Amino acid sequence: MTENDRLLLNAYIDGELDPAHVLELERRLAEDRALANERARIEALRGAMRERLPRETASPALRRRVAALARPQPFAVNWRGGWASMAASVVAAFAAGSIATLVAIGPGGREPVAELLVASHMRALMASQPVEVTSSDRHTVKPWFNGKLPESPRVVDLTAQGFPLVGGRIDVIGLTPVPTLVYRARLHVISLTALPLSSRASASPHAIEGYNIVEWTDGPLAYWAVSDLAVPELENFAKAFRAGEAVP
User: Fold this and answer.
1) Helix (H, G, I), strand (E, B) or coil at 161
2) How confident is the model over 52-80, as a mean pLDDT?
3) What does the angle CA 20 – CA 24 – CA 29 come to, to the nearest 5 degrees?
4) Sheet holding 133-134, edge to edge
5) For residues 141 and 155, is the Cβ–Cβ distance under 8 A?
6) Mean pLDDT on 167-193
7) Contact, 205 vs 226, CB < 8 A?
């Protein structure tokens, strides 16, 4: 039993591991009795601490400060301008939001789209459960998207190629809900998001904040694969996905 094993166990119990590490650790737990016993020991210790140690309570002053921060602030409206001024403000805010969305996902917004996708990938890695539907069966994942989104992605079984399916989720990119498939390669997670073709995909891979991105188009959709995998391996994933047989 190494110190790294104990750190992984604590992160697993806290729900802080990404799906690839969860799958790998659960496989080890099923095979390694010493590791499973250590997990039981840690969980028992935490339970005893919760039951026997007194909990610190917040002071009245701290409670008042938190309540003040949580209290909703009144929405200030200048009524001297009447309804016309308020309507103009609403229209201006709506226009600003529309322009921001257009910049993010419009034909000329390639880098902003990539940054939003990397941000979604990073949020998923930090979440306790980065997929909404957990399954390695493409016949389970594909129907899950049907009815939730106007366009469902291709779902390909790439287990034989070394990229097993983990599940899927719905991300929001530029105020637009889009489907994301989650695959893994060993301990690396791959987020594959399908966007409307107007988002414009590029044939050349690039990187943002240490995450590589490979893009391609297929029919009315552009597919964006994001991962910390090396570019050659991520390109192999893209080639295998494009060549694979999808669920009808």
Assistant:
1) helix
2) 58
3) 145
4) 133-134, 165-173, 176-185, 188-196, 221-227, 211-218, 206-208
5) yes
6) 90
7) no
Mean predicted confidence (pLDDT) in 174-185: 89
pLDDT reported for residue 34: 86
Q: How far apart are CA 9 and CA 39, in angstroms?
A: 6
- pTM of the full structure: 0.55
Question: Residue 85: pLDDT above 70?
Answer: no
Is the pLDDT reported for residue 80 higher than 70? no
Cα separation of 236 and 157, whole Å?
A: 14
How is residue 117 annotated by DSSP? H
Of 162, 163, 177, 176, give the one whose Cα is nearest residue 132: 177
Which CATH number does the domain 88-243 belong to among 3.30.200.100, 3.40.1190.20, 1.20.1270.60, 3.30.930.10?
Answer: 3.30.200.100
Q: What is the pLDDT of residue 211?
A: 92
Tokens of residue 151, six digits:
């366009």
Q: What CA dihedral angle connects 33, 38, 39 and 43, to 10 degrees?
A: 140
Neighbours of 235 (CB within 10 A): 16
Residue 152's nearest CA partner among 133, 127, 175, 125 is 133
How far apart, in whole angstroms, are the C-alpha atoms of residue 172 and residue 5?
35
> How does residue 105 score in pLDDT terms, banded at 50, 70 and 90?
very low
